[in-house]
C-alpha cells in the first residue's frame, strides 16, 4: 500500500470533502479515500479504520 500527497485541491472540493467527513464522523483522509474509490467505480471496496484511542500501551518499566 502506498502513501501519497495530493496538492492543489480546489477549494470547493476541500469544502465538500470536509463536510462529508464531518457528516460521517470520518477523518479527511478516510473521506478522501472513500471518494476516490467511488470515483473509480469501486463502491464495494470496504475500508477498516482503527481508532488509536483503542490501543493500549504496555508500560514494562513498572515491573
What's the topology here?
Elements: H1 11-24, H2 28-39
Helix pairs in contact: 1-2
The number of distinct helices, counting runs of at least 4 residues, comes to: 2
Largest sheet: none
Using the alpha-carbon principal axes, give the shape.
Answer: globular
Backbone structural class: mainly alpha
Could you tell me the mean pLDDT? Answer: 82
Number of domains: 1
Indicate the proportion of strand residues: under 5%
Count the E strands.
Answer: 0
Distance between the termini: 38 Å
Description:
The protein is mainly α. The chain has one domain (about 10-60). Helix content is about 40%, strand content about 0%. It contains two helices and no strands. The chain has helices at about 10-25, 30-40. It is globular. The model has no long low-confidence stretch (mean pLDDT about 80).
Question: How would you describe this structure in keywords?
Answer:
single chain; 63 residues; mainly alpha; 2 helices; globular
Nutshell version of this structure?
With 63 residues, the protein is mainly α.
Amino acid at each position: 500500500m502506498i502513501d501519497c500527497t495530493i496538492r492543489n485541491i480546489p477549494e470547493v472540493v476541500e469544502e465538500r470533502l470536509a463536510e462529508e467527513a464531518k457528516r460521517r464522523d470520518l477523518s479527511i483522509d478516510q473521506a478522501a479515500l472513500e471518494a476516490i474509490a467511488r470515483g473509480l467505480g469501486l463502491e464495494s471496496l470496504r475500508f477498516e479504520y482503527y481508532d488509536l484511542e483503542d490501543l493500549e500501551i504496555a508500560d514494562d518499566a513498572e515491573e
